[in-house]
Amino acid sequence: MLARERLLCGDEIVKQNDLSRLYGQKGCLNLSQMLYFRNKKIWIVGDSLMVGWDGTKLLKNNCPKLISQALRPKVINNRYSFSGAQISGNRNQGTVDLTNNVSQIILNSQFKSVDILLLSLGINDLNYSDNNIGYIQQRLQANIIRLKSNNSNAVIIGILPFESYLKTKNR
Q1: Does residue 93 or residue 73 have the better pLDDT?
Q2: The whole model's pTM is what?
Q3: Which of 12, 111, 135, 162 has CA 20 to 30 A from 88's CA?
């Protein structure tokens, strides 16, 4: 590893040449974990949080960038994250829903070689959707099945929705 590379350890970004201080620390990746991700292809399917929206502005140090810095995967593709994206869609808004997004993903010939698919959706379903939680769960399950049937080797990791940044919404 190069000394100029950095590792995300908890909330701290630390130089790689200081690994001895980090080894075994809570929230830090060990060497084998870091090497595991080096040759992986990670795709992120998400909403505005995965684009970098924090509720008021777009961040330069957004989640995909931090994932890339911490794990140093071979590929990180955030092309399937959109502001306003939802799991279930919304009949009242022209949002990107997961079903349409998955249809585009499985048509992409590179999807067959994806190792890890990070799904980070849900806050817009809670904030803006007129769909109930049962319908949202059904759409999510159906789309995970579609993704797995098109790439059975992909590890799909879900991130639960964050606390709403809207003052009028509790969760």
Answers
A1: 73
A2: 0.76
A3: 111
